[in-house]
Design brief:
Order of helices and strands: HEHEHEHEHEHHHHHHHHH
Distance between the termini: 90 Å
Strand order of the largest sheet: 3-2-4-1-5
Shape: elongated
Strand content: 5-15%
Radius of gyration: 31 Å
Largest sheet: 5 strands, parallel
Number of strands: 5
Structural class: alpha/beta
């Protein structure tokens, strides 16, 4: 055996841990991943049902179903061989821990170790996990499987108020959590709607509908129109919305069940945006006084509901101080 052959026999080789995202369609791998797979001496996978395997074999790559220990994998690499391990969903923690122990012992001439992500999550990919989890909960949870749109309505209101409170508190962690709770309501209702025998729809239909609406109502972003101020954007939004829904009044679509101050401010905003000069009703009573205050606040760019909540919080703190 010459010196070159001896060196090759002693070369430790290379171990490549190939990871993929289950949120990306199987077979859609990066070009570097395909090159590595075709150039490897051996490709191993512990899971014979791994979703990538049919596509790898279709591409002419031989994959051995095997789950070697760290020591066995190092031996397989001996002689300068490159071994690719197609990671399972758990990421092969036992194997990577074993390799780390071997490397830390200092007694083993370790192969080169490389992590190669073969596919990446796109922004929003975790929403697919939420849809999948909600589907299982709806199917298997005794409580969730019995819920209806009507029964869940109160939770949507509660979660919306908790979201507003998190925003007003300025707590970023709490805000993130409350956004998740509101998102859950949307996904939950969409999952229930899939079972409707008359007019079923899914979360994809919900998302598709709002995407279409956003594009249509933002022609200054997706079309040829121009809007240079927030007021111009709002005006176009309301005009387009009225045309879409064939509304005959600027008050159409204002939910009358919302809190009173918010309702008064919304009506005042609709009238002002439409250029209508409508005098406030003249009558005695606290309600009419509050209506006038809400209209004035809206005209000044103040949310009367938020302003009253802030004042109520200050009053709450004063009560606590008096108690203490």
């Amino acid at each position: 055996m010459n010196a070159t052959s001896a060196e090759a026999e002693q070369a430790p080789g290379r171990i490549i841990l190939l990871t993929t995202s289950h949120r990306v369609a199987p077979g859609l791998l990066s070009w570097s991943a395909w090159q590595t797979l075709h150039g490897a001496d051996r490709v191993l996978c512990a899971d014979g049902a791994h979703p990538q395997l049919p596509y790898l074999r279709e591409a002419g790559i031989s994959v051995d179903e095997a789950s070697p220990t760290a020591e066995e994998l190092v031996d397989i690499c001996a002689g300068g061989r490159t071994v690719v391990v197609v990671a399972t969903g758990e990421g092969e923690p036992a194997l990577t821990d074993g390799l780390a122990r071997l490397a830390g012992s200092g007694r083993v001439h370790m192969p080169d170790l490389e992590l190669l992500p073969a596919s990446y999550d796109l922004p929003g990919a975790r929403l697919l996990d939420l849809v999948q989890v909600m589907d299982r909960i709806r199917s298997e949870c005794p409580w969730s499987s019995q819920q209806t749109h009507k029964g869940l309505a109160k939770y949507a209101i509660e979660e919306a108020y908790e979201l507003v409170e998190a925003i007003e508190d300025g707590d970023a962690d709490e805000l993130r959590e409350e956004l998740g709770d509101v998102l859950l309501q949307v996904v939950f209702h969409a999952r229930i709607a899939e079972e409707d025998t008359d007019s079923p729809y899914s979360i994809d239909d919900v998302a598709g509908g709002i995407v279409t609406k956003l594009i249509h109502r933002h022609p200054h972003v997706f079309g040829d129109e121009t809007a240079t101020t927030p007021e111009e954007v709002k005006e176009h939004w309301l005009r387009t919305k009225a045309a879409e829904k064939r509304r005959t009044s600027v008050t159409d679509g204002v939910p009358l069940g919302q809190p009173g101050l918010a309702l008064a401010a919304k009506l005042a905003s609709r009238a002002r945006t439409a250029g209508l000069d409508v005098p406030l009703p003249k009558a005695e009573g606290v309600g009419y006084e509050l209506l006038a205050l809400a209209s004035r606040a809206e005209a000044d760019g103040v949310d009367p509901e938020a302003a009253l909540r802030a004042a109520a919080r200050a009053y709450r703190d004063a009560i606590k101080d008096a108690e203490g």
